[in-house]
Amino acid sequence: MARPNRSHEKRAELMPVVAQAFSELGYRKATTAELASRCGVQENILYRLWADKKAMFTASIEYLFDGTMQVWQGLIDESAADPDGPTAAERILAYDAEHRGEKGFYRITFAALSETDDAEVKSALRSMYSRFTQFIEKEITEHRKGIGSRADALPEPWAVTWAILGLATAADIGREVGLLSAPKRRAMIAEVGRLLLEGLPTSK
Question: Do 139 and 92 form a contact (C-beta atoms < 8 A)?
Answer without folding.
Answer: yes
